[in-house]
Amino acid sequence: MARLAGFCGFKAATIGSRVDLLQMQLIRTKLRSMVSRRLLALVIVAGVVTPIIGHADETHFVLTIKDRKFDVGEIAVPANVRFTLTVRNLDSVPAEFESNDLNREKVVVGGGSITVYLGPLAPGRYVFFDDFNPKARGAIVAK
Amino acid sequence: MQRLGLLVAIAATLVAGLGAARADFELHYPVVDYREFEVEHNGDTTFDKANSGKSNDQSYTVELGYGLTPWWEPELEFEMQAAPGENWKYGATTFENTFQLAPQGKYWADLGFFAEYAHAQIRADADEITFGPLAQKEWNDPFGTGVNTLHTLNVLVTKQIGRNRNDATPVELAWQSRIRINPFFEPGIEYYGNFNTIADRLTVTGPGHRIGPVIVGIYNFHEYGALRYEAGYLFGLNNATENGTIRWRLEYEKAF
């Protein structure tokens, strides 16, 4: 009888330890999934916020199109710095800011404006033009 | 009887697998040219030993596209193809869509999304939907070298639908890096990989890897439009691929 009770006790203890092990594994899995979810959330937030923060103090330039001409022939920008260029079209007809050197091509509707995100650029001269009126030309000079 | 069934299954899978192994050597860029009309021609032909069954596999496409909005460019593609030792066939009519997800240059990389539906014109082929992300990164003046570089990556998943479909989910990777020396002539390197065995372990053909040099350029005629070109040679890197492939792209574009 005592042996039977001892055996039952041993069995109960074994089952108990297995339950504990299962519980431990369950807790570990939950913890891992919580950590990985938080890590994923952190990565997503960092991915979204970092570029926004990175552009907060961007250098800014303005280019105007009037009478189908650019108001500035040359824009000097610092090399290896990100910057934005706002192109305002004061004419009633559309224009297209285009530059093969800069790999940019963007239509500006009559009376509208666009923002072109550029850089960081290696030092050099980058020609741009109005594709609808190629006589209108200019250049960005990165120094 | 069981052996015969197995042989039929393997043969069917091989045929389906070979169909899926035919890579599309076309790199998609994540930037939409708003209000621009384009006519594009892509072509490729393979080279290998005459009796390998991998030589002279040809594909030619003509595409018509228009940048309808600053973020969406739909295109209609017509594809002709000739498998090794076979006659020319009209392969598929495809409706392609490129979505630009953010203004170019605003974030660390430019992101886009590509989705297409290809309607097979060959009776034994299945219709396909292909979709996936497009990414591009301008990396200028790397390590103070004074040159600007451009890197593009496509990760596209294909799923066959309708009759003749198989359950494989092939993934195609395309990557191109080029040096922006001059807009007329930008040399680079590109890789095309296709992985057929993601979900279909029975597919007999292995993954295909091809890598090689490419030149890209643009010539602008201004009020008469612009002409873009790409020409590359790809070396097959494993037994599943042919020894070499010539690929080219010619695009005429005009903004309205």
Structural notes for this entry:
Chain A is α+β, with helices and mostly antiparallel strands. Chain A contains one helix and nine strands; from the N terminus they run αβββββββββ. Chain A starts with a helix and ends with a strand. The model of chain A is unreliable at 43-54 (pLDDT under 50). Residues 1-21 and 200-204 of chain B have low confidence and may be disordered. Chain B is mainly beta and 256 residues long. Chain B has a single domain (2-255), classed as monomeric porin ompg (Porin, Beta Barrel), CATH 2.40.160.40. Helices cover 8% and strands 54% of the residues of chain B. Chain B contains one helix and twelve strands, in the order αββββββββββββ. The interface between A and B is medium-sized, with 30 and 25 residues.
Topology readout:
The complex is a heterodimer of chains A (143) and B (256).
Chain A: H1 2-54, E1 59-66, E2 69-70, E3 74-77, E4 83-89, E5 95-99, E6 104-108, E7 113-118, E8 124-130, E9 133-142
Parallel strand pairs in A: 1-4, 3-9
Antiparallel strand pairs in A: 1-2, 4-7, 5-6, 5-8, 8-9
Chain B: H1 2-21, E1 36-47, E2 58-66, E3 72-82, E4 89-100, E5 110-120, E6 127-140, E7 148-161, E8 171-179, E9 186-195, E10 208-220, E11 226-236, E12 244-255
* Broad CATH class of chain B: Mainly Beta
Contiguous runs where pLDDT drops below 50 for at least 5 residues of chain B:
1-21, 200-204
Instruction: Please identify, by name, the CATH architecture of the largest domain in chain A.
Output: Sandwich
Strand order of the largest sheet of chain A: 3-9-8-5-6
Q: Radius of gyration of chain A, rounded?
A: 32 Å
Per CATH, the architecture of chain B is Beta Barrel
If you consult CATH, what is the topology of chain B?
Porin
Order of strands across the biggest sheet of chain B? 1-2-3-4-5-6-7-8-9-10-11-12
- What's the overall geometry of chain A? elongated
Q: With helices defined by DSSP (H or I, 4 residues minimum), what is the helix count of chain A?
A: 1
- The amount of beta strand of chain B, in percent, is over 45%
CATH topology of the largest domain in chain A: Immunoglobulin-like
Count of individual helical segments of chain B? 1
Q: Indicate the structural class of chain A.
A: alpha+beta
* Average pLDDT for all residues of chain A: 78
Biggest interface, residues from each chain: A-B, 30 and 25 residues
Portion in helices of chain A: 25-40%
Shape of chain B: globular
How many DSSP E strands of chain A? 9
What is the name of the CATH superfamily of the largest domain in chain A? Cupredoxins -  blue copper proteins
Q: How is the biggest beta sheet of chain B arranged? A: 12 strands, antiparallel, barrel
